[in-house]
Amino acid sequence: MTIPRYWREFQHRYRLIGTKCPKCGRIYFPPREVCPYCHRESIGKMQKVEIKNTGKVYSYTVIHQDVPDFKFLKPYLFIIAEMDSGVKVSGQLVDVSPEDVRIGMPVRISFRRIREEDRAGIIEYGYKFIPDE
Amino acid sequence: MVGIVSYGSYIPRWRIKVEEIARVWGEDAEDIKSGLFIYSKSVPGPDEDTATISVEALRNAMNRKSVKDVGAVYVGSESHPYAVKPTSTIVAEAMGFTPEITAADYEFACKAGTAAMQSVMGMVESGMIKNGIAIGADTSQGAPGDALEYSAAAGGTAFIIGNDNTIADIKRTYSVTTDTPDFWRREGQDYPRHGGRFTGEPAYFRHVTSVAKKIMELMGTKPEDYTYAVFHQPNGKFPTRAARMLGFKESQIKQGLIVPYIGNTYSGSMITGLSAILDIAKPEDRILAVSFGSGAGSDGFHIEITKNMEDYRRENAKAVWKQIESGKYIDYAIYTKFKKKIKMGD
Amino acid sequence: MRDVYIIGIGQTKYGEHWEKSLRALVVEAGLKAIEDANIYSKEIQAIFGGNMSAGSTIYQDNIGSLISDFSGLSVNRIPAMRIENGSASGGAAVHAGFVSVASGFYDTVLVGGVEKLTDVSMEDQAEIVSGEVDQEWELFNGGTLAGLQALMARRYMHEYGAKREEIAMLPVLSHEHGSENPYAHFRNRIKVEDVINATMVADPLTMLDMAPASDGAAVLILASEEKVRQIKPEVKIKISGSAMSSDFMSLQSRENLLELKAVRDSTEKALKMSKSDIKRVKIVETHDSSSIMGLLILEEIGLFPKGKAGKYLEEGYGHKDSRVAINTSGGLKAKGHPMGATGIGQIVESVIQLRGKAEKRQVHNADMALAINVAGTGSASISHVLEVV
Which chains are within 8 Å of A by 3+ CB pairs? Predict the structure, then answer.
């Protein structure tokens, strides 16, 4: 990922910022410029919202594939969490063994390194989930 | 009065035991445990570094008290993720403080965190800012097989410092600074070197005890006037002995002595011990806190808990000892992978 | 709107074609299709090329021109364009070709799909095939295509109480049918326990739940009623329904992970266009990029109740001799999954069946087939209904 491509999503990735439609109140993550249900009435009016950082495991998997960016993490847990605000967010779940993960388990967002270009390249930070104990 | 408005710590989940490191290097684990008074140390996950630890520590502080008017953020560490490119900006972005804020990274051996605290105190007292953030965090390095490998750990603590609504007032700070080269790492080197026993008497003990004595002299206090004392913790032995030399009892240092279980978190070391004390301290408790940095010196603080502590939401973040207890052990092989010590192919 | 017919089909064997380039594969299938249609190249008025990843696998874009040129058609100056919709590129190309003939603009068009995956390393393949999920908000965080489909599988087991064994039934069926298809990537039969015990890819899905990365090409020649009258094919096969629908790109954006709204919509529309319903369909080619995707599609189109597809397969449904035959080609799992060709290859198989030329895997009285081609975790779906008329 080139630097500008990573940089322009900083805020969304660092702070889990999505958008809210002022018309119907739906919250979206990833952020979007137009509400699929309110269309024109939402254009230019979508509001940035920081999504509350707690939720529950909605589904989970352990990925065993050789994904070059995640070599040091293999196998790694990947989940979709249903956040307390109702919006679903997918991401890695860390600091827990796969056998201890259950659907419905409370999780929260943690600030982590996601990838790096290489040992000399830019470090890309973002969100991962950790158990909410 | 200037003081701590909120605080938070973060200790990575992973631990390695002294036995496991000693097994690999053919050392006597019992010898090391009794010699260093260290049983295990914290290890950062492969996706953690000083920036992520700083953010998590600060989020814990903000969860306890959401402070709006923040004018400065300083991160002290000797393991900033980049040699060139600041850590504090990453922290400021992650907290949503940018762009109207001043920030800088500190690097001052193991007392970069307390150096940051003093800077923020000065800015608050001068009226330059309303609240400021000082963080000390590290993912420290010890060369494989070196004595440091048993202690070099990861963790950090963040303080929000301001004039209003303080939970702990910092009534006095005092520093000594000398060039006593007992520990260093040259540019481009992966691991530090140290002066062995030279790090004891002329370095650690001289600085820590002289600062502690001076603070008590300035405040007109004696060891028994403090509920708690906490000193820099390169191992369990040094702070215990320093406390004894100064006339403190074990009961005064026990709560803040975290090094036996998580190792030396360098810039995060003393202040995470202080954080553990704040987890239980009551109004009017007095704390003597002294940091130490090799080739740097010592910063001392006389701290008094205020009445505000009663309404302060400590329970909104995990206490230090709770974090220490929730560690999970890994073996040396996983440790070398997590710490990226394995030479990879291209 | 005019009726649209399929007058020619061609395909390469799917699999590892070390000796053949992307262009060689598509030319091989294209020439077969033209020959099969019994027309001359110069009668083709336009090319719609389905391809997902040539830009990443062999750094070759402008695939439309490439196909046109090496099929020997560029000297005829015909329009040739590439259609890209991830794994659904092939189906989307067919839909585009269909629309172009149905509208009356063209009478004879070539729809070809191709993918060349063995020119890149295995590691890169995983990332390239994941190119159809949201790069910023899924793959950036480690959410591969297989990983995301595994999230669907886990949720499926959780919500419906479906057993792992039931999910494994589709790969078993696909391999059984694929073993009789000379064009299939894999021609071995497998058992449920083979699927469950295979190398884990994304828990609970194993290597044998997942479609392979195959090289291959497939081509159709579409024609108008006028053209068909002129050619007089032995069996007249009409595309009686063609529809494409879309859904949220990333899985996290969907209210229900187990609802494939695009699949339901495109299939309902295609069946409605053909004035038919699912009960009349004899052959279904489902998009089993993974076992779970294949099953969810079968449920979404109303063939089986929700959460029960695997159970029905256990009882023998889906076999070529049952009321509805599923994946007689071997599906994506056994026939293979050269993404750009996949959706077109499904229709090639359907035509072979409707012509009665499927030999050992021939379905009795095959007169109507439904092919469903899907992108990613369901972000796009194309349904085609084919009938003998």
Answer: B, C
